[in-house]
Every structure is written in C-alpha cells, then in structure tokens.
Amino acid sequence: MGLGAQAYPGSTASAGVSYALEFRELMNTDSRIVAAYETLGTLHYTMKVIDTGVFRMRGSLNDLDDLAPDLATSLVTKRIMQD
Q1: N or C: which end of the chain has fewer CB within 10 A?
Q2: Closest by alpha carbon to 28, among 3, 2, 47, 56?
C-alpha cells in the first residue's frame, strides 16, 4: 500500500454548529481519514489519518488546519503496543 505515516488530529466544537457540520462532512468524505470519532474531553472530534510519509502528511494536513484553526495533531513516530 505504501502508507507509512499516521496522524491523529483532533478538534473542539467551540466554533459553533456550522463548523461542526462542515468538519463532520470532511471526516466522512476525505479518503485519508480511515477512522473518526466524536469524543468527550478536551477534543470533541478525533480521527486517524494515513498518508505515504511523514513529510507528505504534514503538508496534507494544511487543509484541515484551514477548516479547524484550533486543530491539535499528533504524528505517530513509533508504535509501542497494538491490540
């Protein structure tokens, strides 16, 4: 598959209902997003994004940053444990 990078972006819903609807639409339509969750806690939404490499991943997350100015993202650098 050639997919070598994973990121877990998350966002709050503090920007309002229209923002939340647009963000949820993106989570349902963007092919890089392989899982998405509505959560309780600091972040209201979080998702798993995959891409071919870390540098490409950083660049490809810019469109998410435009939609979600309060986006927090963690790139996976090493897997410690898996189910």
Answers
A1: C
A2: 47
The continuous run of DSSP H or E covering 49 comes out as strand 45-51
The architecture (CATH level 2) of 5-75 comes to 2-Layer Sandwich (3.30)
Contact between 13 and 42 under an 8 Å Cβ cutoff? The reply is: no
Judge whether residue 69 has pLDDT over 50.
yes
- pLDDT, tens only, 14-61: 666 677 777 778 778 888 888 888 888 777 788 888 888 777 777 667
18, 16, 68, 71: which is closest to 42 by C-alpha?
71
